[in-house]
Amino acid sequence: MDFTTQLLIAAISAGTPLLLATLGGILNERAGIIQLGAEGLMLMGAVTTCIVYIRSGSLLLALLATLAVTALLGIIHSFLTVTLRANQTMSGLAMTLFGSGLSAYLGKSISGLPLPGTSPKLDLGWVKSIPVIGDIFGRLDVLTWFSLLLVAALHLLIHHTSWGLHLKAVGDNPATADVMGIRVQMIRYSYVTAGAALIGLAGADMVLAYAPTWNEGLTAGRGWIAVGLVIFARWNPLRALFCAYFFGALDSLGFRIQLLGSAIPPYFLKMIPYIVTILVLMYLGYRNRNKPSGTPESLGTPYIREQRF
Amino acid sequence: MKKRGQAFSFSFVVMFLLAVVLAGCGSNNAANNSAANATEAPATGNAAAATEPAASAEPAAEAPKVAFVYIGPPGDGGYTYQHDQGRLYMEQELGIKADFVENVPESADAERIITELAQSHDIVFATSFGYMDFTLNVAQKFPNVKFLHASGYKTAENMGTYFGKNYQASYLSGIAAGKMTTKNHLGYVGAFPISEVIYNLNAFTLGAQSVNPDIKVDVVWTNTWYDPATERQAAISLLDKGADVLLAYQDSPATLEAAKERGAFAGGNDSDMSKYAPDNYLTNPVWNWGPYYVKAVKSVMDGTWKSEQYSGDMADGMVALAPFGNKVPEDVRQLVEDAKAKIISGDLNVFTGPISDNQGNVVVQEGQTLTLEEVLSMNWLAKGVEGTIPK
Known about the structure:
The structure holds 2 protein chains of 2 kinds. Chain A is mostly helical. Chain A has helices at residues 3-30, 38-56, 59-83, 88-107, 125-128, 133-137, 142-160, 162-172, 174-179, 184-209, 222-232, 237-259, 266-287.
């Protein structure tokens, strides 16, 4: 395998949790609700997966429990922001603090215990025989395939169905959507809940794919990177795929440059993803300066029927 | 607008409740440690402890109040876990109850927490390198309290240091790695390019070369003690470059997991990690702090304590080697055991010359052995290590 193929494989492995969390964030924010709770939701997802997998021995049960727990947190977030119209930034930050604290507390009972397994790999014999593509796609795990299918599904949903149209209407102009007969609150609740569950799944992927054991704070800030990637991807699932893998590739590129024996200090190599992100944002900002930004227009604004602003 | 205002205030109440729940979780931990509440902290364990040793030993030897400051949670399965095991061992051996505070950052917070502990305790163990200056500051304010700082180099009248020659176990891990590799290519995931990691990397390399002179060791620096995603990327980049046995001076088992996926061998650091991947586990250095903690607290109790820079090793048991993984064959185990016996007896010293660095300079002359100080300030990479120490 050549350098590029290896880097691609590493990019997919590093990018998958980011991709799942970014897709979750996109669902949230397309509906007009800011999601800053990703870090806490990922930690809650990770700890739930660990507890249920270790206690029950069933991966499926663990994943279902993860989806349920983080969906519940999503419902809390939507209750706060949709029904109570609380400040979405505050509620998201509270979710992050709450999730990190609670996951640390719950995780005490199982910390240091190994998971009974990791996420199963799909051995695709016939794909493996294809050069390059076989190396990359021949042995991906279930969650990676799921995230890839999800990208396609969400792309179709958002851009090619009437549900997507409703979602965008709710995120852009809830008053108009309401007049059209779209149930704004219901849509916001559903997408915030689904988004939170996806972010929780990202946390599950981190323990299943990286280090099969619970440890406090194991996401190490990746929730925040996902929050940034949502904006980087301009709320678009296909771009999210590119951005997450791009970020994953940069993440592992630093080590590869170290191993080439370069004289660049690793401190600088570790900055690569962030520096490149800033550069790309500057370039995109310049290139798209006269185009709409893609931001859901009413992002962050609670909707109250018949209220005038 | 009024309604909206109500909604906002209600939501703030809910968020406040969330915060209280959160704080509740936090204070639950603190209550376990009982260090946050300095006043009630020593009360519980002490009443029982005061009577017990006092009956057996001299009347003067009242049970000291002991506190530990941890960098991570005791459940980290690594560095802090081993310290906590040491604390439990000490509690059991001496029949006293110690307090601990976990997750103390190496910042001004540490000074505040150590100060609080010093007000209500007789002995404070600060278990991470970054507490050095803060511990020293506090030590100067509390001359009657004994401070013991792990892995540092600053001492005072009432502040000593302790650490162990874990490079001895790194050398033994290197022997195992040198025998297990089929490509003569090892990989080392280093946390930070500091002397502690550097001398362990060099010892690992020298150990491997002692059984297999053609070995080369690739090193990458992650600049983190604990971040599974980053550690995994580091491990995969080493495996991609062709290394087939890895050792990670890191706190998570991510490297071992990555090695398992590729059918390679790996070891971790600080504690026995075999349970994560028994068939791909090599071995690695582990800490065993218990006997030292017993000794230190005892010496304070009988008044013989004096400030020193204590360095444990394999002979006194502070440093040990984790049990081998399932797939490490008998002859390799035997080879490591032989070398271990020689290290314990003093016949084998890891840093005895001739040793060259990877720039071609002789850093230890034939027949010479590095002093402990020279080891602790090591800033060169041994011949065979492919990588640099970032400046």
